[in-house]
Amino acid sequence: MTVRRLLSVLVTVIVVWAGNATIAQARDRLVIGINQFPSTLNPIIDSMLVKSFVLAMARRSVSSIGNDWESFCQLCTELATFESGRAEAFDLLDDDGKQTGKKGVRARFTLRDDIFWGDGVPVTTRDFVFTWHVGRHPETGVADLRSFQDITNIEVQDDKTFTIVSRKLDYRYYALNGFQLLPFHLEQKAFSVPREYRSRTLYETDPTNPGLYNGPYRITEVMPGSYIVLKRNAHWRGKRPTFDEIQVRTIEKTAALEANLLSGAIDYIAGEAGLSLDQALAFEKRHGAEYQIIHKPGLIYEHIDLMLDNPILADIRVRRALVHAIDRQAISDRLFAGKQPVAHGSVHPLDWIYDPDIPKYVYDPDRAKVLLDEAGWSVMNEGVRHNAAGQPLRLEIVTTAGNRVRELVEQVLQSYWKRVGIAVRIRNQPARVLFGETISKRKFTGLAMFAWLSAPESLPRTTLHSDSIPTKANNWAGQNYTGFKNAEMDRLIDAVEIELDREKRGALWGEIQRIYAEYLPAIPLYFRTDTFILPKWLKGVRPTGHFVTTTNWIEEWRVE
């Protein structure tokens, strides 16, 4: 009996082992569903969440922000703090050698020895200096030109150590969060004509070149608008990632994402760009027992950028009327079960800089009508307001085609605005067109609905400062798509950037939020909660609640 029992146990163990081995082998490939396709894979051109999601598996930045919302090194060995001796402030001098009363900072970083591009070439200071030259050139058209231009010099000590000399003692001086290196040995030729770099970069012309990537994976196949395939980077020296291959599949109609998940065509719907909250809540009721479902509130600001070059929207009374005319609380309650709170500004209450006392616009259609009358839109003709010259009050709104919740919100907004005499036409576009052309090159004429995903205490220089307005002359650098120009906002952004005292900085942040709420360059809608729908066997996925995507820790994902 003892022998028989032992044989029975051995047979059971072998069967279980064989079964688990088969399951593990079958799960060497992970298929992720997202609802947008990147407009470009170049890490410093355009700002798009799905691009960050994909590139975080294939690239790493010098430093980043973790789940604890604190900065940490990725490609570097140590943050450059005053306490560590890696940073020192210095007095800025004018052209005559006199002190200006302002401070600059020298911050020394060392790159790790075990980081290589996917073709085996080591990552060195040469890549950092080259990236700086690309980013600071006024014709390149990068998203954050000013940050590159604030660096006045880079002192290279050796292949791994360099010192950044900055003309500003920035409150973020000790880190290089989000600083993405470009491979000098591959991209230098593409940059020979800076104004053409957007189209000549290998991330556009040869995106499967292994040397473009320094992370756990490298991109091996790109089918524009459809999918991106990543495979393990043989030159990655960090923790070996679980999956041999990851496919990121774009399914722009969010309703189809659920069907693909249930059919097994995809394994996982990314929370960063997946189902809307209403869809996710309904899915959870029907299939919650079959999946891991994580609801993560975070610094995701859904809003409508307003084209302030449009004479209609240049009138602040019209902008305020647009907000008073919509019941944002009802939208939150009825569409999102109150789980996506109304936004009164761009800063989330989770962020320490949030000011609860900023001006708020309650639902008041009568007030909206008074404001429109005062703005000269007082003649009603066939349900649409006209001015004295007979011009109708007509606007156009654009958002990501196929995003069911945004399309639904558009229709609700359109209905609210119609009640006060504002005619709004809906014209949506695929995400890669909307973000790659229409918004980034300021081609929208009225309203553009999308979201900003930010870091904690994120300086809005690139979105609100007047020197960050994209133009043809600067090759569409910057993200101030509304064209907002306000001297006091510029002053406050400049001031908060160099204020190291947390309490004083908090007061400046309050002023920034009040100006934003008063002048309304955008219509605040709500703060999003992202829902991650994972198979029960996938572990290690940890949403951050800020701009760094879960894929930044792809090597920690595992099968259980």
How does this model look, in words?
The chain is of the alpha+beta class. The chain is built from 18 helices and 20 strands. Residues 9-25 have low confidence and may be disordered. The radius of gyration is 25 Å and the shape is globular. It has helices at 2-26, 49-58, 125-136, 145-149, 184-187, 197-200, 202-205, 254-263, 277-287, 311-314, 316-324, 328-336, 365-374, 404-419, 431-438, 461-464, 487-497, 502-519; strands spanning 29-34, 63-65, 71-73, 87-93, 99-110, 151-156, 161-166, 217-223, 227-232, 245-250, 268-269, 291-306, 379-381, 384-386, 394-398, 423-426, 447-453, 522-535, 538-539, 558-559. The protein starts with a helix and ends with a strand. α11 runs antiparallel to α13 (365-374) and α17 (487-497) packs antiparallel against α18. Among the domains are: 60-185, Dipeptide-binding Protein, domain 1 (Alpha-Beta Complex), CATH 3.90.76.10; 300-529, Roll (Dipeptide-binding Protein, domain 3). The strands form 6 sheets. It has a 5-stranded mixed β-sheet, with helices on both faces. β2 (63-65) and β3 (71-73) form a beta hairpin.
Helical content stands at 25-40%
Morphology = globular
What is the CATH architecture term of one domain? Roll
Structural class of the secondary elements?
A: alpha+beta
For the biggest sheet, the summary is: 5 strands, mixed
**Assigned CATH superfamily of one domain:** Dipeptide-binding Protein, Domain 3
**Integer average pLDDT:** 93
The N- and C-terminal alpha carbons lie at a distance of 34 Å
Strand content: 15-25%
Which ranges are low-confidence, i.e. pLDDT below 50, for 5 or more consecutive residues? 9-25
